[in-house]
């Protein structure tokens, strides 16, 4: 059955999320760990993935060694810069991990475990699930879940598909035992959905507050990124009630030094705001389940 579209949920008076310590904004930084999970000729793909890289003036047919190198920068350098920025400040974050990428970067995986960051599955490889046959998708979810469980020592509690889930994705995730998914961009608070007669939590993501804007949509400096996200948080703090804000990061994008300096300023600013709860996505999900159970 096609997924029903829902155009209204909480309306003008959304529930008070009752974030810990009276916070008004739950601020969740998400590191997308994808390097090694992208399409590549050495992995049997017909071409190299060039999406969300610094770009090229000439498209390359087949293997693109430059694009491969830009991805590798993310796991070789960018990840460790982000890791230092968060751990030096004692701030938590979430990792959206492509299973194949996490498996291929054991030093990064060990650092994620040691930092206590939560890992949500971002697929087996960096691929679209929209249009995927149900049996294939079920196998992909099982493979991704198993790899992350083995590498991290525990199965992932959350899932985020690359851009577009299929009509089957959410049901398959419920069957696989996931606590929540983030395959939605339609709200600033979590909400419940009934899937196969069972309540399932959705913790929405967003692409508006994301470092992809360095590649596609005009942000050119770390200072601009700092001001853009700071402004979003200030807007939420000025409104009644409480909200959550997801800030998407990529090792190979914001991990570049001229951009990371803006993230450093943002982390320092956010940590000093009494109304901001910097938290993991798992923390948001568990808080919502406890404070706002289904029904």
The CATH architecture designation is Alpha-Beta Barrel
Proportion of beta-strand residues: 5-15%
Contiguous uncertain segments of 5+ residues: none
Number of domains: 1
What is the radius of gyration computed over CA atoms, rounded to a whole number of angstroms? 19 Å
CATH superfamily: Glycoside hydrolase/deacetylase
Highest-level CATH class: Alpha Beta
The description of the largest β-sheet is:
5 strands, parallel
Sheet/helix structural class: alpha/beta
Q: Which term fits the overall shape?
A: globular
The tally of beta strands, per DSSP, is 9
- What pattern of helices and strands is seen along the backbone? EHEHHEHEHEEEHHEHEH
Q: Determine the CATH topology.
A: TIM Barrel
**Average of pLDDT:** 94
Proportion of residues in helical segments: 25-40%
Number of helices: 9
Gap between N and C termini: 23 Å
Give your account of this protein's structure.
By secondary structure, the chain is an alpha/beta fold. It has one domain (20-291): Glycoside hydrolase/deacetylase (TIM Barrel, Alpha-Beta Barrel), CATH 3.20.20.370. Helix content is 39%, strand content 14%. The chain has helices at 65-89, 99-104, 106-115, 134-152, 169-175, 213-216, 222-238, 257-271, 281-291, and strands spanning 25-33, 94-97, 118-121, 158-159, 180-181, 191-195, 198-202, 243-250, 276-278. The strands form 2 sheets. Strands 1, 2, 3, 8 and 9 form a 5-stranded parallel sheet that branches. Strands 4-5-7-6 form a 4-stranded mixed sheet, with helices on both faces. α1 packs parallel to α8 and α7 runs parallel beside α8 (257-271). The longest helix is centred in the N-terminal third of the chain and has 25 residues, at 65-89. The protein is globular, with a radius of gyration of 19 Å. The protein starts with 24 loop residues before the first strand and ends with a helix. The model has no long low-confidence stretch (mean pLDDT 94).
């Amino acid at each position: 059955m096609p997924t029903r579209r829902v155009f209204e949920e909480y309306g003008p008076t959304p529930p008070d999320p009752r974030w810990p310590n009276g916070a008004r904004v739950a601020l969740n930084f998400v590191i997308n760990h994808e390097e090694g999970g992208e399409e590549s000729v050495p992995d049997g793909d017909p071409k190299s993935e060039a999406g969300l890289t610094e770009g090229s003036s000439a498209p390359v047919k087949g293997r693109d060694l430059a694009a491969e190198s830009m991805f590798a920068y993310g796991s070789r350098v960018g990840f460790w810069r982000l890791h230092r920025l968060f751990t030096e400040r004692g701030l938590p974050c979430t990792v959206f991990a492509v299973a194949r990428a996490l498996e291929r970067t054991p030093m990064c995986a060990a650092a994620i475990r040691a930092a206590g960051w939560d890992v949500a599955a971002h697929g087996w490889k960096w691929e679209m699930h929209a249009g995927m046959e149900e049996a294939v998708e079920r196998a992909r979810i099982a493979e991704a879940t198993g790899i992350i469980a083995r590498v991290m020592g525990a199965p992932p509690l959350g899932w985020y598909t690359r851009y577009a889930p299929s009509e089957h994705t959410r049901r398959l995730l419920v069957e696989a035992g996931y606590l929540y998914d983030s395959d939605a961009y339609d709200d600033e608070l979590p909400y419940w959905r009934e899937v196969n007669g069972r309540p399932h939590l959705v913790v929405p993501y967003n692409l508006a507050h994301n470092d992809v804007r360095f590649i596609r949509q005009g942000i050119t400096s770390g200072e601009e990124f700092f001001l853009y996200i700071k402004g979003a948080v200030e807007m939420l703090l000025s409104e009644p009630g409480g909200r959550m804000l997801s800030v998407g990061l990529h090792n190979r994008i914001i991990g570049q030094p001229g951009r990371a300096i803006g993230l450093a300023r943002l982390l320092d600013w956010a940590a000093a705001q009494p109304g901001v709860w910097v938290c993991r996505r798992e923390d948001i999900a568990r808080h919502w389940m406890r404070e706002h159970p289904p029904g």
